[in-house]
TrEMBL record:
InterPro entries: Acyl_CoA_acyltransferase (IPR016181), BioF2-like_GNAT_dom (IPR038740), PEP-CTERM_FemAB-rel (IPR017469), PG_Glycine_Bridge_Synth (IPR050644). It comes from Nitrosomonas marina. NCBIfam families: pepcterm_femAB (TIGR03019). This is FemAB-related protein, PEP-CTERM system-associated. It comes from the Bacteria.
Length: 356
């Protein structure tokens, strides 16, 4: 365990903050801190190092700050180097939240400085922090993404009645159709529904290996729920559980899912199950402003909360725009939608691994 940097705490000069790179033997302590730190999220967990390295072959640096032998802050980082999409260091690619989770400003500043020094050393285009709250008012930022989070009532029926009338009617439609839900241990039905959905959207698909690693790494905190009608798969969702929160993160449905209101039923079923199991927060996840998924979540009565993705420019002169809404990607999306799904599923992972 090498010390990357050491500095005295300005509030208490007798306390020294040492920054280390996480080693396998540190992962348990790391996760204990993450569970206890109010700023930390599921995406700060140590397991993401294993997932990102093995699924995408990207180099990671999981930094933690220690004071008197105790972890006081963490910063998971991964480097992506792509001919198509540039070279950057971020916290954390493939995750909606990231940045520093720390117990004090001194620890936060020390970890951020270590990240900037690493970004300079790697000669990346930029350093990206995916913060839930603004941290650096003087850094460039994107006003592209929002998140949707809502407190669940302990009463299941109250949660249903809080859904706006038109959306609630869609949920009841799925219930009336007699749709059923299963909890799966393997990813096969999930991947079928997910890959069908993203192909229609013209979006490259993640590999099966990625989802298998997520399930293996996070075990009971990574759940697969599939909705079916008479045994025919209609929709499926992969959800993460963290503290008292449930996060439906990846999901999709077949062409037939719309006819049965399967996606509407699926998210209600997840909400209902989570409420039964004592979870307090439903995190509907990230969406780009003014998109279909943004409108869908608004229809459930969730309020959009801005995400603060902040950038420290290193070699780049401006923030990149890799969003599918970028007009230069329009032709690519239209072409992708026309590919046979088997071909898209084969090519997609080679592209999406560089997007982060």
């Amino acid at each position: 365990m090498s010390v990357l940097a050491e500095v005295a705490d300005t509030e208490n000069p007798s306390v020294h903050v040492a920054v280390h790179e996480m080693q396998p033997e540190d992962s348990e302590r790391w996760d204990q801190f993450v569970l206890s730190c109010p700023e930390a999220t599921f995406f700060h967990r140590a397991g993401w190092k294993n997932v990102i390295e093995r699924a995408f072959n990207h180099k990671t640096w999981f930094l933690y700050a220690e004071c008197n032998g105790e972890i006081q802050g963490v910063l998971p980082l991964a480097e992506i180097k792509s001919f198509l999409f540039g070279h950057f260091l971020g916290s954390l690619p493939f995750c909606v939240y990231g940045g520093v989770a720390a117990c004090s400003d001194t620890v936060r500043e020390r970890l951020e400085l270590a990240a900037i020094e690493l970004a300079d050393k790697l000669k990346v285009d930029y350093l990206e922090f995916r913060n839930m709250k603004p941290v650096h008012q003087d850094w460039p930022t994107k006003d592209l993404y929002v998140t949707f989070r809502k407190t669940l009532d302990a009463d299941i029926e109250k949660n249903l009645l809080e859904i706006p009338r038109k959306q609630r009617a869609m949920v009841r439609k799925g219930i009336k159709f007699g749709l059923k839900s299963d909890i799966d241990e393997d990813i096969e039905r999930f991947f079928f529904a997910y890959s069908s959905s993203v192909h229609r959207l013209g979006t490259p698909v993640f590999s099966k290996k990625y989802f298998q690693l997520l399930k293996q790494t996070f075990a009971q905190d990574c759940e697969l729920m599939t909705i079916h009608k008479n045994g025919v798969t209609l929709s499926s969702v992969m959800s993460f559980y963290f503290r008292n929160e449930v996060l439906p993160y990846y999901g999709g449905g077949t062409v037939e899912a719309r006819n049965w209101a399967a996606s509407d039923f699926m998210y209600w079923e997840l909400m209902r199950r989570s409420c039964e199991n004592g979870y307090k927060t439903f995190d509907f996840g990230r969406s780009k402003r003014d998109t279909g998924s943004y409108s869908f979540k608004k229809n459930w009565g969730f309020e959009a909360q801005p995400l603060h993705y902040e950038y420290k420019l290193i070699k780049a002169s401006h923030i990149p725009n890799h969003s599918p809404s970028n007009p230069k990607y329009k032709y690519f999306i239209q072409t992708w939608q026309k590919l046979p799904r088997s071909v898209a599923n084969w090519i997609g992972p080679f592209i999406v691994k560089s997007l982060g």
